[in-house]
Amino acid sequence: MSKVILIVEDEAVVALATADLVSALGHTVLGPAESFDEAMSLAANTLPELALVDIRIRGEIDGIETARHLQESHGCSIVFVTGQTDASTRQRAEALNPIYYLRKPFTPEQLSEAVRLGLAARK
Description:
By secondary structure, this protein is of the alpha/beta class. The chain has a single domain, classed as Response regulator (Rossmann fold, 3-Layer(aba) Sandwich). It has a five-stranded parallel beta sheet, sandwiched between helices. Helix 2 runs parallel beside helix 3. It is globular.
């Protein structure tokens, strides 16, 4: 059954590749959003069940804060997809209890597993 998955990613190549992989899994892609404002606007119009969120995105509000707002406002599960692995960033991200922390670069199999776990957490 198709689910709505929001992609929050400001790198065009990564965003398109992620969207293609999510579509190939049979899900509806929302976005990609490049910033907090875009993500919140998209989520307000079509409620996502899962958000794949990069930590570094355009604008003053980062992906961690964007994910927090998505959780609080829309109750969607969060999977961080990022190259940020320093301890302080990871600690901030993990405070939100994301379903998965997917490091870039990732394989299609890793993304598929992250999506599966993210959607399973909604049940």
